[in-house]
Amino acid sequence: MTRRPVVLVTGAGGEVGHGLIHQLADLAVYDVLALDVRAVDEEIARRCAATRTGDILDRHLLDRLRSEFEISVVFHLAALLSTRAEFVPETAHEVNVQGTLNLLRLAVDEARSLGHPVRFLFPSSIAVYGLPDLDTKRAAGKVVEPAWLSPTTMYGCNKLYCEHLGRYFARHYRQLAAGEPSGVDFRAIRLPGLISAFTVPSGGTSDYAPEMIHAAAQRRPSACFVRGDTRIPFMAMPDAVTALLALLEAPAGSLASPVYNVAAFSPSAGELADLVRSAFPEARISFAPDRRRQAIVDSWPEDVDDTPARRDWGFRPAYDLRRTFEEYLLPNITRRYAPR
To answer: pLDDT (tens digit, 9 = 90+) per residue, 211-224?
Structure first.
């Protein structure tokens, strides 16, 4: 039986998965195989060549996918996010680390079968960073990729270790054994907090920003779980998806590193609240910092240095803070919650 060439997207039902699958479908270059632990919604399914429901921890499922499809590109988006991971850290480790290892093994097997490298795109996170206190955070400025890698969350530990796994598979896989390289072309982006107009917040520690926006559009009060002066980098979802696709297409020879920072804007929570109030004058936004979640966000940088991404593969965010609100969030979120 002839295997069908596809791009595999794991975690297809999540926030990044939605935007990525729509853009891949619009490109009309790749057929998409969507995989998620839950059935993807019909809107996404229509844009895919095939969909499968299953767990990335199920090696038999992944073997069945390989028997049916030629997988030349993997976008490995599936993960347990930061807040949820703190409640079930052992489960998070299984999903985030063992699941990634399973997908890297799949990529090795596919590269050998196809006779060329498989590109493996991995969304990492600013959660890999761990600054020890607020004074250090404020003095650090834009943090570069090798600095302050002491994460304080299971999610951050998982993401950092998976970056190392990807680097190992790409450069050092079975280095003492005779044979060819793995064929895995691993490329990772450390994403900042993401703000989406089309999917609701789903458990990320940076979700305080989209939570206040979605609540205001629904005329619901919201209590922000961090202080008003809290500042971390953010990005509009379309820029995150565009960055993943730009990194996919970058020539391997232009990439000086397997892991890159990206960011777009770094407002404080108070500045975000003011923007939401300007758009929704009746918005009821308060600040009720959660001590534990606040401590996590305080360990993340106020901003990151994305100079290498701009230099090596032309990263340029299209959305600054104001454009994100005025052109992306407001029209789409207002439409989403408009009375029918």
So the answer is: 899 999 999 999 99
Burial class for 339, CB neighbours closer than 10 Å (0-12, 13-18, 19+): exposed
The encoded tokens of residue 284 equal 């009821």
Per residue in 300-311, pLDDT (tens digit) is 999 999 999 999
Query: In 3D, which of 144, 167, 296 has the Cα closest to residue 226?
Result: 296
Helix axes 59-68, 99-114, angle to 10 degrees: 30
List, for residues 219-239, the tens digit of each pLDDT value: 999 999 999 999 999 999 999
Residue % of the chain over a pLDDT of 90: 86
Confidence label for 129 from pLDDT (cuts 50, 70 and 90): very high
The predicted structure's pLDDT at residue 161: 98
Query: What is the signed CA dihedral for 193, 197, 203, 204, rounded to 10 degrees?
Result: 0
**Which of 30, 129, 155, 173 is labelled catalytic?**
155
Residue spans of beta strands (DSSP E) within the chain: 4-10, 32-36, 50-53, 69-76, 118-125, 142-143, 184-191, 193-195, 222-224, 234-236, 259-261, 285-287, 303-304
Cα separation of 338 and 340, whole Å? Answer: 6
pLDDT (average), residues 149-161 = 97
Residue 30 bears catalytic tag: no
Could you tell me where the DSSP H helices lie in 172-222? 208-217
Compute the mean pLDDT over every residue in the chain, rounded to the nearest whole number. 94
Dihedral-angle region of residue 322 (phi above 0 means left; psi in -120 to 50 means alpha; beta otherwise) = alpha
C-alpha to C-alpha distance for 270 and 39, rounded to whole angstroms: 37
CA–CA gap between residue 340 and residue 335 (Å, rounded): 10
Residue in 30, 184, 57 with CA at minimum distance from that of residue 122: 184
Instruction: Write out 34-80 in H/E/C secondary structure.
Output: EEECCCCCHHHHCCCCEEEECCCCCHHHHHHHHHHEEEEEEEECCCC
Query: Which of 93, 333, 53 shows the shortest CA–CA distance to 213?
Result: 333
Do 35 and 8 meet the contact criterion of CB atoms below 8 Å apart? yes
